[in-house]
Amino acid sequence: MIHPLGPELIEQLVDLARRAGDAIMVIYRDRDNYQIQHKTDESPLTAADLAANNLIAAELPRLLALPIISEEGEIPEFVDRGLWENFWLVDPLDGTKEFIAGNGEFTVNIALVQHNRPILGVVHVPATDVTYLGVLDARSPASLGAWKYQHGQNPERIHVRNLNERYASHQAFTVLLSHRHGTQATVDLMETVKSRWMGPIETTNAGSSLKFCVIAEGNADFYPRLAPTSEWDTAAAQAVLEAAGGRVVHAEPNASRSLVSLRYNANEDLLNPHFYALGDKSFCWEWLLGLEELVS
After folding, report:
1. pLDDT at 293 over 70
2. Taking Cα atoms as reference points, which of 95, 250, 109, 265 lies closest to residue 181?
């Protein structure tokens, strides 16, 4: 077990994410220095990915000496990491394609995972110098919840918006979609949602784990991801969203018709199943998404 997550550790983690963001922005402003490579899966890798990773890998053990899984680091064999109770899970630059495109929608993701569940997550947006924090560790009750940090301002408590009220008053339901990963399954799902929601449906596109944070601060309601992702893409943002009153769940319910939260480092690969990032967890999502039809 790890020690309770005190304010000092949390503030140091937020500061580290910001410093990694600063390192990314130095390169972001100099397009001639991106040094774009491609990994074996054809995903891009830039000098900014490596600069952020090197800083985080050096500094995280000084905050809390735990193993690290990073997208840009060496991945330990499951026979070893499967025994870990606690570890850091890092994506030093989530949204490298957005970084290359120059749209600013990329993040630094740092999560602390305990027993396969993210209990602390920091998502920093370097282009806007905004940071999101989610704390779920029950041993630190004074720190439970989600916050948004903006440069020069005190952190603001954030929470998902009330969907039962929005449904009853026929207000808009806002869906976030990826820039590059639309699927026919997503199109079909949206038809189901449109047939059940009483008000208008709004959709907008966004990049990286920023989509989770937009839901967490009450500016959207739903993000379906019916395409591949890795665990480092979602862990930190899942902590933020869950601490704000939402959920991140498998796209298919289990045999008892329940939605199941994503878990981490529980399998040999580090790939997520298709999932939904949900706002207000008190809402009847199984009905809205037509999931009861899948298990009836």
Report:
1. no
2. 95
Query: Tens digit of pLDDT for each residue in 72-119?
Result: 999 999 999 999 999 999 999 999 999 999 999 999 999 999 999 999
Nearest to 120 by CA among 189, 57, 66: 66
Instruction: Classify strands 130-135 and 86-94 as parallel, antiparallel or unpaired.
Output: unpaired
Angle between helices 47-63 and 7-28 (to 10 degrees): 160
Domains of the chain, by residue range, sit at: 7-158, 163-295
- The dihedral region occupied by 218, where left means phi > 0, alpha psi between -120 and 50, and beta the remainder, is left
Q: Which residues contact 225 (CB under 8 A, 6 or more apart)?
A: 178, 181, 251, 272, 274, 275, 276, 277
Alpha carbon distance 247, 279 (integer Å): 7
Give the three-class secondary structure for 173: strand
Q: Is the pLDDT of residue 124 over 90?
A: yes
Percent of residues, the chain, with pLDDT higher than 70: 93
Token match 């899948």: residue? 294
User: What are 177-215's pLDDT values in tens digits?
Assistant: 886 655 788 889 999 999 999 999 999 988 789 999 999
Which CATH code, of 3.40.50.150, 3.30.540.10, 3.40.50.300, 3.30.360.10, is assigned to 7-158? 3.30.540.10
Residue 86: partners with Cβ closer than 8 Å, 6 or more residues away = 1, 2, 66, 112, 113, 114, 115
86, β-bridge pairs? 114
CATH level 3 topology of 163-295? D-Maltodextrin-Binding Protein; domain 2 (3.40.190)
Which sign does the torsion angle of CA 142, 146, 150, 151 carry? positive
